[in-house]
Design goal:
five-stranded antiparallel beta sheet; 2 domains; 5 strands; about 290 residues; 434 Repressor (Amino-terminal Domain); 13 helices; alpha+beta; single chain; globular
């Protein structure tokens, strides 16, 4: 681990970002340019003391999860992220394998979406980032861990919870779409990837998944229109727009409803109520491709 190189790299990146670049307000007058350390720590969901020690060349070697979170917070490109990993004493990760890292271009778009549900997903339909309206609609993904973060896994392993988000008549379609999406991810990520691990796990545990997987259907697309069921406001019809990175490793999904419609009013109500409107255990299940 090269503590000097790591500290210098972090300081330079922090100084190059303005609050507006990461979706923050200007706040009080700043004596120096760039983000404050506490702002980077907040964006990376770590303590300010931990991040400060890294910049002061006295922190412990950060884990790969911590580094991915810092790279996301500082809006690093994949090449910059790889450099960060190396100076911190880790090998550069595979481009599809970094948990917690988000493409800067998608983050810049998400930072500007405050009034409509939006989220960034991995190829395995794991939430990387959600805005507040998305949490209000689907629940807080940060309350989930491990494979439970994958909507593909939850759809087949926890159907009583996951499938309540969509009408019964749409369940078969969502099953086919999720398996086809995982097959596409498997093709991109390879036989030694997490996509392969997930496919093997579900094939052994779920007969419906095994039958669909063996049909060899491949698709990586997102519907233009869907119906979501919310426990408080009921049925909501939304339009879904998808923005993918160039390598299709991540996707930004934005859900909207026609202006002044009843469905738009329901989305506004959820945004006003916030995440506290979701009662009981976390019910985050992302939209299906």
């Amino acid at each position: 681990m090269d503590r000097d190189a790591l500290a210098d790299f972090l300081v330079r990146h922090r100084a190059a970002l303005a609050p507006a670049d990461v979706g923050l307000g200007p706040g009080a007058r700043r004596r120096t340019p760039g983000l404050r350390r506490e702002e980077v720590a907040q964006l990376a969901t770590m303590s300010t003391d931990y991040y400060t020690r890294l910049e002061q060349r006295r922190g412990p070697q950060p884990s790969t999860q911590m580094l991915a979170a810092i790279a996301r917070a500082l809006r690093m490109t994949p090449d910059e992220r790889d450099y960060l990993f190396r100076v911190a004493g880790h090998s550069a990760p595979e481009r599809f394998a970094v948990e917690g890292y988000v493409a800067p271009a998608l983050m810049r778009v998400l930072d500007r979406l405050h009034d409509t549900p939006a989220m960034i997903l991995s190829p395995l339909e794991e939430p990387l980032v959600q805005n507040d309206p998305a949490r209000a609609l689907f629940g807080d993904a940060d309350l989930l861990s491990g494979w439970e973060r994958s909507a593909i896994y939850s759809w087949f392993q926890d159907p009583e919870q996951a499938r309540t988000v969509y009408p019964l008549e749409a369940h078969a379609h969502h099953s086919r779409a999720r398996v086809a999406s995982l097959r596409a991810a498997y093709g991109s990520m390879g036989p030694q990837s997490r996509a392969a691990e997930l496919a093997e796990l579900l094939h052994a545990r779920n007969a419906e998944f095994a039958q669909l997987w063996d049909s060899q259907v491949v698709a990586r697309r997102f519907e233009d229109h869907k119906v979501v069921l919310h426990p408080q406001v009921g049925r909501i019809e939304v339009d879904c727009q998808a923005l993918l990175t160039e390598d299709a490793s991540q996707v930004l999904l934005v859900l909207t409803a026609p202006p002044h419609s009843e469905d738009a009013g329901k989305l506004d109500l959820l945004a006003t109520l916030g995440t506290q409107s979701v009662a009981g255990p976390p019910n985050w299940r992302t939209v299906s491709p």
